[in-house]
Design the sequence.
């Protein structure tokens, strides 16, 4: 079995699967159950400063969207940071860390954007023996209205300033958690690095309203007929998170900065994808809140089996392996030509490829042949867009096949060139970097 | 065990009183909202959906399923009823595994088609339970049309004519409207008086008057109707029952399966209904299955269906055959009735001859076997009573019509089981009644559509 041990920004854990700072990590009872189930680490639900704790709404905190059979696809929440007393949390963190020395115990913190507040709380957290801290610059609801959470994360200068305070007042590794509710996630990541952060984690939740009740016209989740935007997470946000992780992983200014990937991770495969895009660890919440802590067994065995199959002895061997393949559109090879192929033996003749192509794309798929239902790609119309592959309900029925260099692309009538060529040198590009002919 | 459970002969009360309700409960309990949504989510919303093309009434199945999936069951019901006003009954009795569900691409993909019939029932039940009407009558045309037969063909025809603004009188020989829906279908397929509820739902549009006890050829004549109405539609079904052509057919204990089914459907108290201890049903169609299964459910100890051809030739669908088997009915093939054995004038058994196909022709092999029984049901098909169709051209013993349902006599249309080329399905009767109504409308209104 592959070695899943991770060393992340100076924090060791037996596997890369951490529970994200969220309701599942709010108290020792839940954390104990999680660690027993096999989670490699936890990020304790965000602590606030000393004093009367925050209060939560007493109505619904969560909203959701579902797929077929009420399969949860996306969850949103308007819960705030921990509503338990600081001292109680600190006491429990200390107990847990003593009892589970091999697991990562990271403490999420959110206090006002003032040096004194951070200076006050950091020693208290350090005293628990926790392995590190995560700065919650991400929560988009409630706390942001009070100048915390995403209100900080959206201003790179504040991010840098707070990170700097933390590095000044604690020896613990600092993980800066980033909000996706921002135009360019690289900016706060660069600021965190400038402030000296040891790592970033992302994404926090996305501003969202999950639904509108069409009887009451209240947004969901509804509190006495009113709603507010909450933080969106779960499988639906994974593509957004993967993209943001990749942006930081490949940004020359933050290249090599440890990343803890978060956002809709539900299976070992999701986790491996985040790791391939540069995440040293991953954090999970919605999947655990949907199915319970036991899912980590599937994640551990799935990742391990895949690593064995691929011959990776440790996670370091594949973390970041996909980063080099993320590029800008302008560098994509325009001489790479594909055509869709429909496997007639697998085709069940639903015709969705045809109607998708006919109504909304390139009129490149037949609907009949000799008077019978028959769906076949017309190479002289197919642009290789992949829409038919995506709408086909049958696994592997439609595939994209490369037109090898030297063959004629039936659509353009041109021979497919063997060499790579992209937009930067394309004749249609007014900015093309080809030498103008001499006058 | 009830006292008369094993009583020889034909006797009522073979079950404990409480067992009847369970035995005759809904064959397919309705889907609840969640089940309907899960099932609807399985539909791929195919292009030019094969299920729709397989439906004799061309219901836009993919659309109504999508409407169910999006929590719009009323929209789904309207989609169904706009093509098939008897969509509620068809959802219950259609052999979907030979029609829409056979064509479903999931049948090809995984052998598990979307449960189209059950979804159709889900949507139509909701609309009918709320008495939601989707059609309003066009301005009165002043035209009056007689529809003979208040079965599926007649009701579908009457409804579409009413929608067009015509006034319709529906005549039926029986004490209740509904035709085979009321009298000819196993009770576990249409429980809780659904056939009558559907008649009420269909006629609620207005402009339809039903006159019962009016039998064509007895107290009503075709010529009379033709003279009193602007048009006539015949949806009179099949009145005759084919004979066994076996010796002893008149013995006490030999009975038409259709009568047994009708009696059972009309019974107030099933425990008063007599059934044999050992029952043999002769035939291979839906009626044979319905009679055999219900005999078993009434407490018959042994029920055997004997069919003179093989499994492949049975008109009853695979689903129906499996249903019968699951209820404990034995189905035997390649046996033709030869002689009903009697004791004291009552059925004591039946002698059957082994058969086989020789050069495509069914032949008796000469040797026989005997099954002891005290009741024999005849379910070897029904035939049209030509005396009802005065002056109409027949083909193969049924009324000849063109594609629009026009008979050989001007002003008379026909549809359903009584016409040539039907497949004896409720849904086909509905399609023919509906289409004849369109033809009648076009004819009466001088070719103007609307």
Sequence:
């Amino acid at each position: 079995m592959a070695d899943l041990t991770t060393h992340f920004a100076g924090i060791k854990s037996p596997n890369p699967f951490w529970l994200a700072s969220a309701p599942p990590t709010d108290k020792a009872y839940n954390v104990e159950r999680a660690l027993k189930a096999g989670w490699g680490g936890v990020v304790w639900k965000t602590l606030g400063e000393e004093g009367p704790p925050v209060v939560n709404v007493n109505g619904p905190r969560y909203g959701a969207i579902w797929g077929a059979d009420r399969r949860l696809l996306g969850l949103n929440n308007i819960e705030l940071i921990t509503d338990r007393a600081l001292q109680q949390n600190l006491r429990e963190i200390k107990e847990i860390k003593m009892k589970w020395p091999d697991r990562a115990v990271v403490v999420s913190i959110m206090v006002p954007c003032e040096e004194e507040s951070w200076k006050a709380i950091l020693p208290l957290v350090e005293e628990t023996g926790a392995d590190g801290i995560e700065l919650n610059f991400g929560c988009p609801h409630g706390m942001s209205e009070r100048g915390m959470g995403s209100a900080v994360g959206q201003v790179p200068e504040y991010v840098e300033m707070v990170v700097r305070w933390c590095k000044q007042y604690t020896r613990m590794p600092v993980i800066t958690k980033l909000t996706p509710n921002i135009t360019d996630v690289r900016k706060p990541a660069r600021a965190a690095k400038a402030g000296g952060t040891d790592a970033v984690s992302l994404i926090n939740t996305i501003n969202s309203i999950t639904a509108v009740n069409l009887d009451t016209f209240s947004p969901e989740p509804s509190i006495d007929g009113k709603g507010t935007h909450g933080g969106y997470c779960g499988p639906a946000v994974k593509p957004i998170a993967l993209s943001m992780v990749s942006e930081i992983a490949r940004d020359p200014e933050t290249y090599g900065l440890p990343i803890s990937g978060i956002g809709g991770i539900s299976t070992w495969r999701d986790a491996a994808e985040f790791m391939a895009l540069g995440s040293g660890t991953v954090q999970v919440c919605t999947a655990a809140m949907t199915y319970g802590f036991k899912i980590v067994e599937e994640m551990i065995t799935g990742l391990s089996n895949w690593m064995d199959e691929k011959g990776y002895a440790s996670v370091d061997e594949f973390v970041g392996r996909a980063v080099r393949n993320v590029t800008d559109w302008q560098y994509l090879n325009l001489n790479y030509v594909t055509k869709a192929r429909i496997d007639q033996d697998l085709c069940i003749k639903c015709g969705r490829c045809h109607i998708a192509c006919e109504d909304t794309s390139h009129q490149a798929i037949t609907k009949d042949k000799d008077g019978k239902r028959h769906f076949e790609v017309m190479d002289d119309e197919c642009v290789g867009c992949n829409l038919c592959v995506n709408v086909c309900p049958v696994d592997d029925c439609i595939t994209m096949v490369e037109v090898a260099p030297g063959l004629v692309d039936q659509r353009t009538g041109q021979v497919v060139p063997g060499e790579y060529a992209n937009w930067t040198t394309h004749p249609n590009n007014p900015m093309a970097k080809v030498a103008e002919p001499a006058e | 065990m009830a006292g008369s459970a094993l009583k020889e002969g034909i006797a009522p009360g073979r079950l404990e009183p409480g067992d009847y309700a369970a035995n005759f409960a809904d064959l397919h309990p309705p889907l609840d909202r969640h089940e309907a949504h899960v099932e609807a989510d399985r539909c791929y919303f195919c292009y030019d959906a094969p299920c729709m093309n397989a439906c004799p009434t061309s219901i836009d199945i993919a659309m109504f399923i999508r409407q169910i999936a999006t929590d719009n069951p009323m929209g789904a019901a309207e989609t169904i009823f706009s093509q098939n006003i008897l969509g509620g009954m068809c959802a219950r009795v259609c052999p979907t595994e030979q029609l829409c569900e056979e064509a479903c691409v999931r049948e090809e993909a995984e052998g598990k088609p979307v449960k189209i019939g059950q979804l159709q029932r889900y949507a139509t039940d909701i609309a009918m339970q709320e008495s939601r009407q989707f059609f309003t009558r066009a301005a009165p045309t002043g035209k009056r049309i007689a529809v003979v037969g208040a079965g599926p063909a007649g009701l579908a025809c009457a409804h579409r004519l009413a929608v067009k603004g015509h006034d319709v009188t529906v005549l039926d020989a029986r004490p209740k409207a509904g035709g085979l829906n009321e009298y000819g279908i196993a009770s576990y397929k249409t429980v809780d008086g659904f056939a009558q509820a559907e008649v009420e739902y269909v006629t609620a549009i207005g402009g339809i008057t039903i006159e019962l006890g009016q039998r064509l050829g007895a107290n009503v004549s075709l010529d009379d109707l033709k003279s009193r109405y602007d048009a006539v539609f015949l949806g009179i079904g099949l009145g005759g029952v084919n004979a066994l052509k076996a010796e002893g057919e008149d013995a006490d204990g030999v009975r038409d399966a259709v009568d047994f089914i009708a009696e059972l459907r009309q019974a107030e108290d099933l425990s008063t209904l007599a059934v044999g201890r050992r029952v043999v049903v002769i035939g291979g169609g839906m009626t044979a299955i319905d009679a055999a299964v219900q005999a078993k459910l009434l407490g018959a100890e042994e029920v055997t269906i004997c069919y003179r051809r093989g499994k492949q030739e049975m008109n009853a669908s695979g689903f129906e055959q499996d249903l019968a088997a699951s209820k404990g009915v034995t189905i035997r093939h390649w046996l033709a009735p030869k002689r009903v054995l009697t004791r004291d004038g009552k059925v004591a058994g039946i002698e059957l001859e082994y058969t086989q196909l020789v050069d495509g022709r069914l032949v008796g092999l000469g040797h026989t076997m005997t099954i002891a029984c005290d009741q024999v049901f005849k379910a070897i098909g029904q035939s049209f009573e030509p005396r009802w169709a005065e002056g109409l051209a027949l083909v193969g013993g049924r009324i000849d019509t063109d594609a629009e349902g026009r008979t050989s006599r001007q002003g008379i249309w026909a549809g359903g089981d009584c016409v040539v080329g039907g497949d004896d399905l409720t849904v086909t009767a509905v399609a023919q009644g509906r289409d004849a109504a369109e033809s009648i409308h076009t004819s009466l209104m001088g070719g103007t559509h609307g």
In short: Chain B has a mean pLDDT of 94. Chain B touches chain A at residues 34, 37-38, 41-42, 44-48, 50, 105-106, 108-109 (CB under 8 Å). Chain B has three domains: 33-129, 144-239+384-444, 241-381.
